[in-house]
Amino acid sequence: MNTDKKQTENLAESGNCLKPMLANRLPRFRAWDDKQKYMAIQGTPDLETLASFMHHYSDSKFLMQSTGILDKNGVEIFEDDFLLDIEFDQEEGNISSKHLVVYDSENGIWCVDNSYKKDFSSLVPLVDYFGKENLEVYGNYFEQWDINDIPRQ
Fold first, then answer.
1. Among 73, 72, 84, CA closest to 140
2. Rounded to an integer, what distance in angstroms lies between the CA atom of residue 33 and that of residue 40?
3. What is the pLDDT of residues 69-102, one digit of tens each?
4. Cα–Cα distance between 37 and 131 in angstroms, integer?
5. Buried b vs exposed e over 119-147: b needs ≥16 C-beta within 10 Å?
């Protein structure tokens, strides 16, 4: 018996076959449809769904990729999401701020804009800033009209 075939059968039986591994590593996207004011989210991260989604939304100027990270409530974090940061101050009580999720292509990492002016002059790696247990999605750039004055990168 061919050992390569036997090894492939064992991997498939144990649930470690190539297709599920590949599906878990494919990026997920969402796109903002500016005409209909609608956020389209790609379904299952497999090649067929990805190809179909890209066919429909590749012309969108507002295509956003998932970071692959879930917030503390199990919500998937995407590019252009706002993450809520709550700090406690003795005099003021709880102080909250919102940070836009951006991709730092120079360093190849997902970050938040931590600059005072929200001008992308201080990008901090997402998990370094919040810690994994404190990440919380507040909304996104397109559906949270109260914070739309913050610029996109």
1. 84
2. 7
3. 888 899 999 999 999 887 777 777 777 788 899 9
4. 32
5. ebeebbebbebbeeeebbbbbbbbeeeee
| Cβ neighbours of 12 (radius 10 Å) | 13
Residue 123 CA to residue 117 CA, distance in Å, equals 12
Tokens read off for 116: 């005072």
Is the pLDDT at 57 greater than 60? The verdict is: yes
Taking the C-alpha atoms of residue 19 and residue 143, their distance in angstroms, rounded to an integer, is 34
C-alpha R_g of the chain: 19
Coil/strand/helix, residue 114 = coil
